[in-house]
Write a structure and sequence with these properties.
It is built from 4 helices and no strands. The chain is an all-alpha fold. It has a single domain, classed as Chorismate Mutase Domain, subunit A (Up-down Bundle), CATH 1.20.59.10. The termini are far apart. About 5% of the residues are buried. Bound molecules: ligand ISJ. The site of ligand ISJ has 11 residues, from helix 1, helix 3 and helix 4. Pfam families: CM_2.
């Protein structure tokens, strides 16, 4: 539904951020768990899996009438941050 003013736009954004942060925290826990199953930095990066995730979220964007290019950009930035955290977790576990 269309917001009536900027305050309402921001209330909607804040409401969505509350849900997103919760979900991102949950995603971060699983990414951290993945580190235990990795054998080296290349397997932490897992570029083929990254491309599969990007293809999946682009398709989800299309299904939801959302711009796939925007979603891809967000996901590439997000996965880069998650992978950096996973690499740190991997190093804690292995060195
Ligand atoms: C969680 C994994 O590790 C990394 C993080 C990914 C992600 O955030 O989706 C995907 C691939 C890897 O770069 C995985 O290999 O599945």
């Amino acid at each position: 539904m269309k917001s009536k003013n900027l305050a309402e736009v921001r209330e909607n954004i804040d409401r969505i951020d509350r849900e997103l942060v919760k979900l991102l925290g949950e995603r971060a826990v699983f990414v951290g768990e993945a580190a235990a199953f990795k054998t080296d930095t290349a397997s932490v990066q897992a570029p083929q899996r990254v491309e599969a995730v990007i293809a999946k979220v682009r398709a989800l964007a299309e299904e939801n009438q959302t711009d796939p290019a925007l979603i891809e950009k967000i996901y590439r930035a997000m996965i880069s941050a998650f992978t950096e955290a996973e690499q740190a977790e991997f190093e804690t576990n292995n060195f």
